[in-house]
Amino acid sequence: MNIISLLDSSTVIPDLKASSKKEVLNELISSLSSKVDNEELETIRKAVFEREEIMSTGVGKGLAIPHGKASGIRDNYAAFALLESPVEYEAIDGQPVTMVFLLVGPQSSNSFHIKMLSRISRLMNNSEFRMELNECKTVEEILNIFKREEETHFGN
Description:
Blueprint: E1 12-16, H1 21-30, H2 38-54, E2 58-60, E3 63-64, E4 67-70, E5 77-87, E6 97-106, H3 110-124, H4 127-135, H5 139-154
Parallel strand pairs: 1-5, 3-6, 4-6
Antiparallel strand pairs: 2-3, 5-6
């Protein structure tokens, strides 16, 4: 499984309007509502916010990678957003974030979760890739760039 297989038109937001970290997280989590029932959605919400309390997932360079695992989550899910305006996120470099990649999954999928976080980090560490993403205006453009970049870096 790859990153692009976890994203689709319902979980990619090219112009998320939010004024706080909490709003950003809630919007991304809510984008998963077509894939999970309300109970699982609340389990996801709880797992992501609990993880965020441990340490901010703002990794620097304008990027945050919130994530969480819980036994009440049945599958792996992802969502991605470009923020309309930068949001303060308590990132390690002290800078606000402009793009956020959410990854959640079952407690039992630890190795998959780590592999996907590593993949996301490797892709997002590429400054040209981030610049291209920031220029995107549509869901399709974002999905195409992720697909191309993943094929280039990981061959699938």
